[in-house]
Specification:
By secondary structure, this protein is of the alpha/beta class. It is 38% helix and 21% strand. The structure holds adenosine-5'-diphosphate and magnesium ion (MG).
């Protein structure tokens, strides 16, 4: 049975923290990300790549706000779809080129992907995910009135638009992604930014789905054997950022979920990664690990990162 790997890439795969965001920076960064994935392909494993889009969707929303007033604004679902094309293209192209340099013949595809969420998800009554630029209080009140946006004060000062972050139920393109990856052997880039959210009647909704949770749902539904979450830290730490910080090599899935429920990991960063990896392990028995993108192969093969292991069974 051949391996099917879902690799979820963080924002650092295209744009490291602090980068300005020039096209040159993005190509250079994506090249390094692609090169980190090559050893997995060299082994003959099938590969599906998912990715975040936070900085890119923020860029598009800000760009729209700076257009003359008579130019129509596009909605958030369209902005997410645009970032899937943008980042999908860069990753697809970078992976093919890195493979070619490594002497492998690899074809890559990128797909605009949609993620189904529940209209009744409690997230819709408490939007929490900030998107786009910062506004003054007056501007915020105006936008709330004119566009029906939910505006919330940001801890860094000013106001931002907040949108719901509902739970992903399934990825509409799962069968397509599985067919391209498993049957045709293509590297598939999909579920960018967690996918464009649509409700059960397939109406697009203005929300943002967490990319790690959406990647877990995809990995589960396509029968992935491996689910690796690649980010900008070497793994999961306890007491992160404190003098007692301790990097974990292993974390049993049941314990991981308990820690997530106890709020040990921040909901906007490490929390969903640990939850996604733990649910994948509990529901499929597959291999899951969290670690740094540069060490993709080591994370995949258990030599680096934090592996989320099957629950401890009491003897
Ligand atoms: P990505 O773009 O890859 O999704 P995030 O910024 O969402 O990246 O999540 C990775 C970040 O999570 C790290 O840069 C780190 O600062 C933060 N983090 C918070 N808690 C922890 C923890 N317990 N262990 C490791 N990293 C943590
Ligand atoms: Mg993240």
């Amino acid at each position: 049975l051949s391996k099917l790997v879902v690799a979820a890439l963080g924002g650092n795969a295209i744009l490291p923290k602090g980068a300005r965001g020039t096209p040159g920076e993005q190509w250079a960064t994506a090249r390094r990300a692609a090169e980190a994935l090559i050893p997995i392909l060299r082994e003959g494993a099938r590969l599906v790549v998912t990715h975040g889009n936070g900085p890119q969707v923020g860029y598009l929303l800000e760009a729209m706000e700076s257009l003359p007033p008579e130019v129509p604004r596009q909605t958030l679902d369209l902005a997410v779809a645009m970032t899937q094309g943008w980042i999908g293209f860069i990753l697809q192209h970078s992976i093919e080129r890195a493979a070619r340099r490594a002497g492998l013949s690899v074809e890559a595809a990128s797909l605009v992907s949609r993620t189904v969420v529940k209209r009744g998800d409690p997230a819709f009554s408490s939007p929490s995910k900030p998107v786009g630029r910062f506004y003054s209080r007056r501007e915020a009140e105006e936008l709330a009135r004119e566009r029906g946006w939910t505006m919330a004060p940001d801890p860094r000062g000013g106001y931002r638009r907040v949108v719901p972050s509902p739970r992903p139920l399934r990825v509409l393109e799962a069968r397509l992604i599985a067919g391209l990856a498993r049957d045709l052997g293509l590297v598939v880039v999909g579920v960018g930014g967690g996918g464009v959210p649509v409700d059960e009647s397939l109406d697009p909704v203005e929300a943002v789905v967490d990319k790690d949770l959406a990647s877990y749902v995809l990995a589960r539904d396509i029968g992935a054997t491996h689910f690796i979450i690649l980010t900008d830290v070497p793994g999961v730490a306890l007491d992160y950022g404190t003098p007692r910080q301790k990097w974990l090599r292993e974390l049993p899935a049941d314990e991981a979920l308990r820690l997530v429920e106890d709020g040990v990991f921040p909901p906007g960063s490490m929390g969903p990664k640990v939850e996604a990896a733990a649910r994948f392990v509990l529901e499929t028995g597959g291999y899951a690990a969290i670690g740094s993108l540069e060490e993709a192969y080591e994370v995949y093969s258990g030599r680096a990162g934090t592996r989320i292991t099957p629950p401890n069974t009491t003897p």
